[in-house]
Specification:
Elements lengths: L1 H10 L2 H10 L3 H14 L4 H15 L11 H5 L55 H6 L13 H13 L15 H6 L1 H15 L2 H14 L5 H14 L2 H14 L3 H13 L3 H14 L4 H13 L3 H14 L4 H13 L3 H13 L5 H13 L3 H14 L2 H17 L3 H14 L4 H14 L2 H14 L5 H13 L2 H14 L4 H16 L1
């Protein structure tokens, strides 16, 4: 029977088999059948287009969800952005008014961004102020250091995909006549997607899109949207804005609004991005992707009340939306409602989301909700499931449990285990420094706090602790310099402001 099936498969039209494999998303086998057709007739346009589509879908990534910003893009950006902006109107100056959570309650990443409830694109990235700051940040999966360059990542994707063809690339792009292929719309679109996604050749992709746009007398919205995407990746944000606006006038689409919001986010205009997404909601009411991006922007602006309104609206439309459930749970946890947060995290567990992060969050919620019998069990499960990327944070949280029962030696051991798993854990260094101060080991405390300050430049705790220790030891100048940095990072910290006023008055009397 097996031999009979093989003979039947060989007798089936290879083009039919290629289409079947493409629909099953078995792209390697689809390319094999397309090659059989092309070996018989090299000018078979159907097989040529299908193979190009299969190769494109192998490396296709939804760019609406990608928000990596490399060192080159961050520091060599020549777009003018206001250096001093009003709070709540810029990602560099998130809001501090009604609806926000203080830095003293909600932790921040190494770049100063507030920690969100869901690891999404761009969550841990931040625009470095200087090249030194960007390079000093440890580049790990859990750090805030930007990748070397996003264009380099795209090039590596394209190179790796070309290795699957032993005879070199499928299409010799430099020899193509774009005026000829751009006039054939069915062929041009597949060719553009191949050049853009598979080869990552933005120069030729823009050229083909421009020729095809002219061939359609500038009446095809799709080509204008693709030009906008190319300009966005090339960093030409104003040109991308023009093309996307023109495409939106001709044919409103969800992707167009998402990419327009990305353009405004790159220009550090989050309010304009929110306005564009709300315009999209007028054409596409209750569209989850648009609502999710609005909630994310409000989250980054530290306007958590508005963010939660949209996350709750998403849950009414999609009751298993993981990002909304996790974000609402985190909001309730940091607003001193661990019992409510526990319900949401348990909901994620019931949905099948079982990982170290979930059990770590369940352990924290049980601890603050005074369900002591479940706390250690959740942390034990989290430690057993954790990889090196998460282990440092879990041991750091266990150290807080040890501090609550006044077991300082256990807390020190947990913090050292956190540093063994993640040597760049600034919070662990800070807490070890405080414990060494309590023990009277000021030299070790000074070293730990200095390490915390070098790793977590956006934190205020190590600067204040170092300033308080220096003030007690009589090093007033070091104390003054550190407490100024603490107030700069968190202007509402009362103890830092009091110490700064005290030292300022002392120096004024000299």
């Amino acid at each position: 029977i097996l031999l009979l099936n093989r003979s039947l498969m060989d007798s089936v039209d290879p083009m039919f088999m290629a289409l079947l494999k493409f629909r099953k998303r078995q792209f390697d086998q689809c390319c094999t059948y397309c090659e059989k057709v092309l070996n018989k007739n090299a000018y078979d346009q159907g097989a040529w287009i299908l193979k190009a589509r299969a190769l494109t879908d192998q490396v296709y990534v939804d760019e609406a969800e990608i928000d990596d910003e490399g060192i080159a893009e961050a520091l060599l950006d020549d777009n003018a952005v206001a250096s001093v902006s009003r709070p709540g109107t810029s990602f560099n100056a998130p809001g501090t008014g009604v609806g926000t959570i203080s830095k003293g309650i909600r932790p921040t990443s190494q770049s100063g961004r507030a920690v969100t409830g869901f690891a999404r694109p761009g969550t841990e990235s931040g625009r470095p102020g200087t090249m030194e700051q960007a390079l000093r940040t440890a580049r790990t999966a859990r750090s805030a250091r930007p990748v070397s360059t996003t264009s380099g990542r795209y090039v590596r994707l394209g190179t790796a995909s070309m290795l699957s063809s032993p005879d070199g690339p499928f299409i010799n792009i430099p020899r193509l006549n774009f005026n000829k292929y751009g006039a054939d719309q069915n062929l041009a679109k597949s060719l553009f997607l191949y050049i853009y996604h598979h080869e990552n050749d933005l120069k030729n992709a823009v050229e083909l899109a421009a020729v095809a746009t002219q061939a359609t007398s500038f009446s095809d919205w799709w080509w204008k949207a693709q030009l906008g995407k190319c300009y966005l990746r090339m960093g030409l944000f104003r040109d991308a804005e023009k093309q996307l606006k023109s495409a939106e006038k001709m044919q409103p689409m969800v992707d167009i609004y998402l990419f327009m919001s990305k353009v405004y986010c790159k220009l550090d205009q989050p309010l304009a991005a929110i306005e564009v997404l709300k315009q999209g909601l007028q054409h596409f009411p209750d569209e989850v992707f648009l609502l999710t991006n609005i909630a994310r922007i409000y989250d980054l602006l530290n306007n958590l009340e508005e963010s939660q309104k949209f996350y709750q609206q998403i849950l009414r439309l999609d009751s298993v939306h993981v990002e909304s459930i996790a974000s609402i749970a985190t909001y309730h946890f940091y607003t001193d409602q661990p019992e409510v947060a526990l319900r949401y995290f348990r909901r994620l567990l019931q949905m099948g989301v079982s990982n170290a992060e979930i059990f770590n969050n369940l352990g924290l919620c049980c601890f603050y909700a005074q369900q002591w019998d479940l706390t250690l069990g959740c942390f034990e499960r989290a430690v057993s499931m954790a990889q090196d990327a998460e282990l440092g944070d879990i041991w750091y949280n266990i150290a807080h449990v040890a501090l609550s029962i006044s077991d300082l030696s256990l807390a020190c051991d947990c913090l050292k285990l956190a540093l063994a798993a993640n040597s760049d854990h600034a919070e662990a260094y800070n807490n070890l420094g405080v414990l060494e101060i309590k023990r009277g080991n000021f030299a070790d405390a000074r070293a730990f706090l200095q390490a915390a300050m070098s790793l977590g430049e956006a934190m205020y705790e190590p600067y204040y602790n170092y300033a308080a220790m220096s003030d007690q030891s009589g090093d007033l100048q070091s104390s003054f310099n550190s407490v100024k940095k603490a107030v700069q990072n968190f202007s509402d910290h009362i103890s830092s402001k009091q110490l700064l006023d005290q030292l300022s008055k002392h120096f004024a009397m000299l």
